[in-house]
Specification:
Blueprint: H1 3-34, H2 42-45, E1 62-66, E2 72-74, H3 75-78, E3 85-88, E4 91-93, E5 96-99, E6 109-113, E7 118-122, E8 126-131, E9 134-139, E10 150-154, E11 157-162, E12 166-171, E13 173-176, E14 183-185, E15 201-208, E16 211-215, E17 220-222, E18 231-233, E19 236-238, E20 242-249, E21 252-256, E22 261-263, E23 266-273, E24 276-278, E25 293-295, E26 301-304, E27 307-311, E28 316-318, E29 324-327, E30 330-334, E31 337-341, E32 350-354, E33 357-359, E34 364-368, E35 374-378, E36 381-383, E37 389-391, E38 398-400, E39 403-405, E40 413-415, E41 420-423
Parallel strand pairs: 1-3, 2-5, 3-6, 4-7, 5-8, 6-9, 7-10, 8-11, 9-12, 10-13, 11-14, 12-15, 13-16, 14-17, 15-20, 16-21, 17-22, 20-23, 21-24, 22-25, 23-26, 24-27, 25-28, 26-29, 27-30, 28-31, 29-32, 30-33, 31-34, 32-35, 33-36, 34-37, 35-38, 36-39
Antiparallel strand pairs: 18-19, 40-41
Length: 459
């Protein structure tokens, strides 16, 4: 009987030793992964982790599987509970309308593809649309998926979040071949709906790890375009609703007819980061709707760590209320200005452009009509045989430590001809910036040295 405690002690020590060995093994693996060389594309190495893992696959109940023949799903009829999972059957199907699906802030309802790729094909007004839905997640990260497991092919609007939909996350879907916008989120002013300013606020929207391409309008169209002016309707002039807390990140937008990303009415909490926008504004349906990324009327927030390439308009356009920071962005071959800044309606706070790199701008570097706020331009690289900074309508700007040259070759980039705009050892941008609150670069590398380097990348 006295030997049993000794046996238990030995077993305890054995288990403890195995646990320690396991931790050491995991540590060595993590260290090994950390020491792996970075990918060739610096922006890819800077991407935050994809939160769209399989975390919902083992949580909640599968409340319903949407069959290919079903066009309308009503959450009230299904008696959905927070945390429930709805699966879209794999294979091809027609348009889908989701109504009255409501989870909770801690337990959203998850709408996800089932075991393989689900493709929604549409020649109508929309591919997938939500009405009166709240606290939900739409994802293409279902099990056994390759690439984007939920595909929306066609429709005037690929995915529309409409009629008081709010508090949602959208990830890992592919949207293509749309007659207008790829992904749209807003409830337009109406005489019938109480969706106007002061009566409804859309909030807490996340769009990440999506691929939107070959659309004839905007890639992402979030919020109404006329926050201050509103719409003239039979019942009078109606202003659109506000949006709070929007994050658009890790998305790729390719071949958009108008802006790649447009966000308006986001009066607080706008973040647009780590996106790639390429071939934007290729077929605009109205003048001046051919820009890369637009912070629209009524909006303020941060635009950072994006790569914006090849389009006829401005790389970045800011029409918001001020209190906005634009930093660590790479803009290549904009057909007009690298950035255009204006104010529509009231404005407050600063508009700051810090550590951006603008390559081969055609009309000018940064053009500013934003006379209502302080404009700050620090540590930017601008290449092109044009005026780097221009002002009108009484606007002024504080320009400090910018590198402005006629050609990219003068900047000492690693391989400008090959599209690599990181700095080489002989770059005149090294250690020539002023210290700001921006402590990392486009590749999430720490800014170090006697002074930060100018431009989006730190050597």
């Amino acid at each position: 009987m006295k030997k049993k405690p000794a046996f238990k002690a030995r077993r305890f020590h054995f288990i403890l030793s195995m646990a320690l060995l396991s931790q050491l093994f995991l540590f060595s693996q993590c260290k090994k992964e950390h020491e792996e060389p970075l990918p060739d594309n610096p922006i890819e190495s800077a991407m935050p982790g994809d939160s769209s893992d399989q975390r919902y696959q083992s949580l909640g109940r599968v409340a319903y599987v949407i069959k290919a023949t079903e066009q309308v799903i009503d959450g009230e009829q299904l008696d959905l509970k927070p945390g429930d999972i709805i699966k879209i059957a794999s294979g091809n199907r027609g348009p889908l309308l989701l109504k009255n699906i409501k989870g909770s802030s801690s337990s959203p309802v998850v709408i996800i593809n089932e075991n393989g790729k689900a493709t929604i094909q549409s020649s109508g007004a929309y591919g997938l649309k939500t009405e009166n839905c709240q606290f939900f997640r739409l994802s293409g990260s279902g099990s056994n998926s390759t690439n984007k497991g939920l595909v929306i092919d066609g429709g005037q609007i690929g995915v529309s979040f409409d009629k008081f939909s709010s508090d949602f996350e959208v990830d890992n879907i592919e949207v293509k071949n749309c007659g207008f916008a790829g992904i749209m989120a807003k409830t337009d002013p109406s005489c019938e709906l109480q969706s106007d300013y002061g009566n409804f606020t859309m909030q807490n929207l996340k769009f990440h790890n999506n691929f939107v391409h070959d659309v004839k309008g905007e890639g992402f169209y979030v919020g109404n375009s006329f926050f201050f002016e509103g719409r003239d309707l039979d019942c009078g002039k109606i202003r659109p609703h506000e949006i709070h807390n929007v994050e658009i990140y890790n998305n790729k937008i390719l071949n958009s007819g108008c802006e790649g990303i447009q966000a308006g009415c986001v009066t607080q909490g706008l973040k647009i980061h780590h996106n790639t926008v390429e071939s934007f504004g290729i077929s605009p349906f109205a003048q001046a709707q051919d820009n890369g990324v637009q912070i629209g009327e009524g909006s303020s927030g941060d635009l950072y760590n994006n790569v914006i390439k090849n389009g006829p308009g401005n790389g970045i356009i800011v029409l918001g209320t001020g209190n906005t920071k634009i930093y660590n962005n790479l803009v290549v071959n904009p057909g007009s200005h690298g950035a255009f800044v204006d104010n529509r309606g009231s404005a407050y706070g600063d508009v700051s452009f810090i550590h951006n790199t603008f390559i081969n701008v055609q009309a000018g570097g940064i053009k500013t009509y934003n006379e209502l706020v302080a404009n700050k331009f620090y540590n930017n690289i601008i290449t092109g045989n044009v005026t780097p900074f221009s002002y009108d309508h009484g606007a002024t700007g504080d320009e400090q430590n910018n590198l402005t040259v006629s050609s990219a070759e003068e900047c000492g980039f690693a391989n400008a001809a090959g599209g690599d705009f990181r700095l080489s050892a002989n770059s005149p941008a090294i250690d020539k910036g002023i210290t700001t609150e921006i402590n990392t670069d486009l590749a999430n590398k720490a800014r170090t040295g006697s002074a930060p380097d100018i431009g989006a990348y730190e050597f």
